[in-house]
Amino acid sequence: MFAQTTLPTCKGKDIRQWHSCRGIIDEDEYSYAGDFMIGKFEGRGILEFTADRYQGDHYQGEFKNGLKHGFGMYFFANGDKYVGEYQFGKREGKGTYTFSNGKPALSGIWANNVLVTKMSNAQDGSKKVNDLQNPEFEKKKIEALKASILKDRGADKSESQPIKAIGKVRDAVAIVIGVQNYKNLPNANYASNDAIQFKDHAVRYLGVKPENVKLLTDNQAQRADILLAFKYWLPAHINAGKTDVIIYFSGHGLSQEQVKQRYFLPFDVNTDLLEETAINQKNLFKQISQVGARSVVVFLDTCFSGVNRGGQTLVQNQRAVNVKQAADALPVGFSVFSASSNQQVAYGDDSLQHGVFTFFLLKGISADQGMHSTRQVNLGQLADYVTQKTRQFALNNNKQQDPKFTGNQQQLVVY
């Protein structure tokens, strides 16, 4: 299928709220029909350009974070066509460019929109590319997609419903960060989904008002975005001595041996310049401690072992360093719950569609059956549950992952 027919129709007028749904946008310069994630084109769809300089061009295929990404076909107004792989909006990977004027086709490996390695029959090596060679077949699938979306839209005109809070609403604020598709590093599988779901749980179960949640994912989680959120947005939402702060981060982490520091890696990090382009954990915690919050709880679905969630090395010859997170090393009022012990990997899992730690963290927050007899949950109960479930799941998959908690076990997290 060209699109995920199980996705519901996007609802509401605010496109920024469209998530895991199919929708249509008609703008002055383009129209799009297809899948959306976090308000951006992501999945399968068709993008037709209507502006004067592009009129007649259209693309059909895969998208990620609003850009052409994956396999697709681009039809030019002059009759030229490119069929193949894209990376973040540019021709990147195996592909074939054919000319309408009869010139020999360009087949091979592309990088930054330029053919860098010629192959006489490059497209034959990929079934996905061959499957895209029939424009009429693709056109029928696209029309079916549009018809399905319009039918769904006509059947249900209701606005998207806000998240309904189950937990007691309290004076709390949350910054939620998830970086899955790094600019220069291997992906952190499902990290964006982790963050989106945690945001929903923060509102539904942790008592945080929707307007008090700051969500940053992928290219919206660049170093400057994160630092600005903590420097300006967070203090603006704090009532001194009364507000509880919740921080969640899902993505890559790294330790630097020479200075024995831990870093959270934003979307645009350069691992050769960690101090200049990453987020220093110690400095960040110090800054948060100065905003006057009543308490700070930090959830980290990351590890500092130098590999990603699938075991892929982030930096060649990078060695993990055993930086102890002792209780006296944390600022007063801080509690930190991390996905794994030192030098372990914080795994992601295809069957869960989440980081393993986050999957059980979300279940614990939402009161997994048998975890507790009352609605209230303290950090000690939550940590015990998540640690046990994460460790057991990892062992069942021939892996080892032991979450670690440091802080006030008696502090309530679900009211």
List strands and helices in order, with pairings:
Elements (H helix, E strand, L loop, with lengths): L20 E6 L3 E8 L2 E10 L8 E7 L2 E9 L5 E7 L2 E9 L7 E6 L2 E5 L8 H5 L3 H21 L16 E7 L12 H14 L8 E5 L5 H14 L7 E7 L2 E4 L4 E4 L9 H4 L1 E2 H9 L5 E7 L32 E5 L9 E2 L4 E2 H10 L11 E2 H18 L7 E3 L5 E3 L1
Parallel strand pairs: 10-11, 10-12, 12-16, 16-17
Antiparallel strand pairs: 1-2, 2-3, 3-4, 4-5, 5-6, 6-7, 7-8, 8-9, 13-14, 14-15, 17-21, 18-19, 20-22
Helix pairs in contact: 3-7, 7-8
Compact overview of the structure:
The chain has 415 residues and is an alpha+beta fold.
Can you describe this structure?
With 415 residues, the protein is of the alpha+beta class. Helices cover 23% and strands 29% of the residues. It has a 9-stranded antiparallel sheet with strand order 1-2-3-4-5-6-7-8-9, covered by helices on one side. Strands 11-10-12-16-17-21 form a 6-stranded mixed sheet, sandwiched between helices. A hairpin with a 2-residue loop joins strand 2 (30-37) and strand 3 (40-49). Helix 3 (191-204) packs parallel to helix 7 and helix 7 (356-365) packs antiparallel against helix 8. It is globular. Residues 1-5, 121-135, 152-160, 315-328 and 369-373 have low confidence and may be disordered.
Order of helices and strands: EEEEEEEEEHHEHEHEEEHEHEEEEHEHEE
Shape: globular
Major β-sheet strand ordering: 1-2-3-4-5-6-7-8-9
What Rg do the Cα atoms give?
A: 23 Å
Strand tally is: 22
Q: Quick one: biggest sheet?
A: 9 strands, antiparallel
Q: SS-based structural class?
A: alpha+beta
Number of helices: 8
Strand content: 25-35%
